[in-house]
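Below is a filled-in request sheet from our internal design queue. Each sheet records the structural input a requester submitted and the sequence that came back. We keep these sheets so that new team members can see what a complete request looks like end to end.

REQUESTER: design group, bay 2
PRIORITY: normal
MODE: inverse folding
CHAIN LENGTH: 161
BACKBONE (tokenized):
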């Protein structure tokens, strides 16, 4: 049976750390859907269309990955896609508490769905979308932690080096 996994997140923007997790997930599951949260409450730097476009370009080299967006409860979306697995990346122990709580909450809501954690490469353990945005905003270089298309988009967005 084909196993579909959903890799959800804000992806604001997608980083090399996310791409690493997506690549590893794609090597395990038949199909991976990278799903960008349409979050009306949280102020995103990039629109959902921009976040999806950056993710699509960054993941185009992986055949069994598609990019989509979702609204509302993650477990409802996972069921709608006939997926059985939620992928989440772990960078450090500090991620664990939040991730553990979210996994238990999702299990309570949908016991048949499994949360599958993938540990990042240590070289990405400090990379987050928010730090990428902030560093770029204040003129620092993020060239090594995001793909070229995202770097170009950051330049366009913030008008910085
Ligand atoms: O990249 P992020 O911001 O850490 O991703 C968080 C995300 C999108 C996975 C989480 O906020 C989510 O699933 N939101 C959808 C609403 C939902 O289902 N909430 C209950 C989970 S406890």
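RETURNED SEQUENCE:
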């Amino acid at each position: 049976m084909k196993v579909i996994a959903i890799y959800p997140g804000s992806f604001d923007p997608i980083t090399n750390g996310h791409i690493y997790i997506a690549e590893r997930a794609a090597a395990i599951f038949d199909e991976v859907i990278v799903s960008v949260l349409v979050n009306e409450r949280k102020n995103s730097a990039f629109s959902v269309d921009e976040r999806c476009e950056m993710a699509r370009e960054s993941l185009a080299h992986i055949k069994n990955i598609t990019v989509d967006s979702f609204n509302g409860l993650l477990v409802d979306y996972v069921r709608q896609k006939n997926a059985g697995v939620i992928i989440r990346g772990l960078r450090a122990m500090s991620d664990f508490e939040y991730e553990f709580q979210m996994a238990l909450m999702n299990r309570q809501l949908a016991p048949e769905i499994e949360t599958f954690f993938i540990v990042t490469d240590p070289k990405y353990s400090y990379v987050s979308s928010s730090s990428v945005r902030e560093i770029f905003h204040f003129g620092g270089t993020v060239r090594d932690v995001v793909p070229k298309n995202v770097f170009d988009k950051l330049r366009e967005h913030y008008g910085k080096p």
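SHEET NOTES:
- The CA atoms of residues 73 and 106 lie 9 Å apart.
- The two ends are 48 Å apart (CA to CA).
FILED BY: M.R.
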